[in-house]
Amino acid sequence: MQKIVRQILTSKVYEAAVETALDEANELSALLQNRILLKREDTQPVFSFKIRGAYNRIAHLSPEEMQRGVIAASAGNHAQGVAFSAKLLSIRSLIVMPATTPAIKVSAVRNYGAEVILHGTNYSEAAAHAEQLIRETGMVFIHPFDDELVIAGQGTVADELLRQNPGTIDAVFVPVGGGGLISGIGAYIKALKPDIQIIGVEPSDSDAMAQSLEQGKRVDLQSVSIFADGVAVRKVGKKTFEFCKRVVDDIIRVDTDELCSGIKSVYHATRSIVEPAGGLAMAGLIKYVRDSGCTGKTLIAINSGANMNFERLRYVAERTRIGEKHEALFGVTIPEKPGSLKRFCHDLVGERNITEFNYRLAERTKAQIFVGISIRDSSERETFSRELNRAGYDNIDLTDNDLAKTHIRYMVGGRSIEVKNEKLFRFWFPETPGALTRFLDATRGHRNISLFHYRMQGGDFGRVLIGLECPDGDDDALYQRLDELGYRYVEETGNPAYSMFL
Prior knowledge:
This protein is α/β, with parallel strands linked by helices. It folds into 4 domains: 2-48 and 147-322, 3-Layer(aba) Sandwich (Rossmann fold); 50-141, Rossmann fold, CATH 3.40.50; 325-400, Alpha-Beta Plaits (2-Layer Sandwich), CATH 3.30.70; 422-501, Alpha-Beta Plaits (2-Layer Sandwich), CATH 3.30.70. The protein contains 20 helices and 18 strands. It has helices spanning 2-9, 26-32, 50-59, 63-68, 77-88, 103-111, 123-137, 148-164, 180-192, 208-215, 238-247, 256-270, 276-292, 313-323, 340-349, 378-390, 402-406, 435-443, 475-485, 496-501, and strands at 22-24, 35-40, 70-73, 93-97, 115-118, 140-141, 171-175, 197-203, 250-254, 298-303, 327-335, 354-358, 366-374, 395-397, 422-430, 448-454, 461-469, 488-491. The strands form 4 sheets. It has a 6-stranded mixed β-sheet with strand order 1-2-10-7-8-9, sandwiched between helices. Strands 5-4-3-6 form a 4-stranded parallel β-sheet, sandwiched between helices. The longest helix is centred in the N-terminal third of the chain and has 17 residues, at 148-164. The chain starts with a helix and ends with a helix.
């Protein structure tokens, strides 16, 4: 711990990075009844804290190592940090990025003077290719998080915020991917002010550090979140895991809707739009306050980055109200007779606002509607459902149903009487040319596609809903082909939203 503190205090980050502001979010502070501060790492030269660790590591290379050049594997902020740092130091840099990386990120890295090689469809394949290139070229690998000098560079964030707010700090909320940022911040703060809580925040579907700390060993996740790609790490580092065991007080998991709400809260406080990983800390802070009921505390959230794809904003806006607990989604069955819809709207919805309404005639005896309702808090979801039941309206709460939120709300159109033995799957297709063709090749001649829905969301992967007609007794062959394809997928045939609307 003493060594890492010395490395933080003697780091060279300010040859490239800037000291970022610690801004107070006045309206949010009043709303949450706590003093909320935001550490603005989104204002760094590469719009991310990653410049700190990358530059500190590269600046400590020997002259002989600098002559060999540096190499990194990354699809995002670390790539830009390495490329920017290498350009400042006038050394060669090579970045291996997955072929699925959006063009805007590839061009950003190239604009910093780096040579870019596109390889594989994910980080693991890109990293494996980088290792091969290291053996062939002798270039120096710059790890995104599991390196003491990288950790020390990130730890300078803690040195700044303690100087910027010399008074009481009760907790610091830090986004967690591989663990480099929280290791550096936690090590420095615990050495100087051990009473300050260090609280990590992870997506609930990308929680490698939380699971590792719970099990006492590093866990290798089978899959990770595709939304918050800046923290999409399947396995945390050896060094970072050891640091986190000593300095992290708690880790909060947040779902996608809560994360979108965190992005909106940062926007209201700063008028800046952070990337999903950049909104993690704020989302965790808000959840912490709501769950604990604390008041009068000084809480700091680390805004880690702002490299947001513009096309992703629509998706964020659509999911934010649910994350704020201000919208609920329901599937409701009403009698198909005159006056039923008016009764539903007037007597049951009442003073609540309808945020969404989808309906198509399917049967002559009953109608099934997909409806969004404005609510004040989570308890009102349960209240509304009970009111529907008392009125004789069968209903399903779909607020937490990802199939309904991602696909069905955009495609309510009734059932097809022609479809036989249909199975429904949600896929994550890489946003790269040929992804659909590879899927069709894998199922060609064996399955008829009975349903297909895709909507661009601005991420590295597209979410696709597919229905396949499957002959009886042929399931094993289908699953084998899908597994061989290599795309992440989830079967949704048993989902109640599917049976109700599609």
